[in-house]
Specification:
Helices cover about 80% and strands about 0% of the residues. It has one domain. Helix 1 packs antiparallel against helix 2, helix 1 runs antiparallel to helix 4 and helix 2 crosses helix 4. About 15% of the residues are buried. The chain is mainly alpha-helical. The mean pLDDT is about 80.
Length: about 130
């Protein structure tokens, strides 16, 4: 089947897309580690721990979201199960963040920064994939 550019759509996965996904994950982890190291020397480990845990939560949230979206494709009866699993995932994420902040294990701003870095890199990767 040809699209409007005259190229044929192939059902096979393109090897470049897998590379970009791996690159996005590696760059997210790398940026979090580099930023946390520099900030850790200047401000202490509470902030660094917050950035690392925020980045980890961001990656786990992205992974859960990706699995949910892939589970929605082509199924009609799985919607209730996916909604329940998404609510469970978000509840666990909220509970973990609340516990970490309440017991002052991590810095709130570090946690937000780590989570935001993942979000920004997801947006950048999405824009890059949209241009390909």
């Amino acid at each position: 089947m040809a699209d409007n550019t005259g190229q044929r759509n192939s059902p096979e996965k393109k090897p470049g897309r897998e590379f970009f996904r791996l690159l996005a994950t590696a760059s997210t982890v790398g940026i979090n580690l580099v930023l946390s190291t520099f900030i850790g020397f200047a401000l202490g480990y509470y902030l660094v721990l917050g950035i690392l845990i925020g980045g980890l939560f961001g990656l786990l949230n992205l992974r859960g979201l990706a699995r949910s979206v892939s589970g929605l494709i082509g199924t009609e009866k799985a919607a209730a199960k996916i909604v329940f699993l998404n609510m469970l995932r978000l509840s666990l994420l909220f509970s973990a963040i609340f516990i970490l902040v309440y017991f002052k294990i991590v810095n709130v701003f570090g946690l937000l920064f780590g989570f935001t870095v993942v979000f920004v890199l997801i947006l950048v990767e999405g824009l890059r994939q949209g241009k390909i």
